[in-house]
């Protein structure tokens, strides 16, 4: 049990919170404490009945405990963690949150073209796709000892799901959101268009807070060592 606890505590902040929220919400629905009907995205209920939580729960609920749920959690831990620890965001938590927020808003907007109730799979695929753009040559072990490169992974997963007869729309939406983010963040500035800078208030709030927490943790270790 201590090994599981140590592994859980070793996860970076966003990954740990996301995993906790997803598993916790699925546990509550499995125990029938909460109904999935109270979690899905419904704009009319959000505005008319102020059920604001649906903006969050639509990204946290991945269905009941099942093989598909397990696969979703593996992808969450593997690639949310990899994105969070990437040099692009490792010391810039504000930009990471801005990235995930941009993906989430884009997915919500795209949902008006293709009605969807739960958007977690699209968000995970969007984060995976952004990671693949930053790590195109990274070797990723796949099933059966098969190895693919980072830039190939999203399309390999889509191909596998297609062979399994799954609907690819969640992946397509996530890919579109991820591509939009990467173009605005990395490609547009090369053309002189700085269209997606992290807001200063977010940078001050989140990065200063993260630095303060790191400093307190460092002091604590130092005091214990002394």
Question: What report would you give on this structure?
Answer:
With 226 residues, this protein is an all-alpha fold. It is 65% helix and 3% strand. A two-stranded antiparallel sheet has the order 1-2. A hairpin with a 5-residue loop joins strand 1 and strand 2. The chain is globular and about 50 Å long.
- The amount of helix comes to 55-70%
The average pLDDT value, as a whole number, equals 88
Rg result = 19 Å
Structural class: mainly alpha
Report how far apart the termini are.
30 Å
Instruction: Please mark out the parts with pLDDT under 50 across 5 or more consecutive residues, or reply none.
Output: 212-226
Number of helices: 10
Beta-strand portion reads under 5%
Count the beta strands.
2
Strand order of the largest sheet: 1-2
The topology string of helices and strands comes to HHHHHHHEEHHH
Shape: globular
* Biggest sheet statistics: 2 strands, antiparallel
In short:
With 226 residues, the chain is an all-alpha fold.
Please specify the SSE layout and strand pairing.
Layout: H1 2-10, H2 13-30, H3 43-48, H4 54-60, H5 67-85, H6 93-110, H7 120-134, E1 139-141, E2 147-149, H8 153-163, H9 169-187, H10 200-225
Antiparallel strand pairs: 1-2
Helix pairs in contact: 2-5, 5-7, 6-7, 6-9, 6-10, 7-9
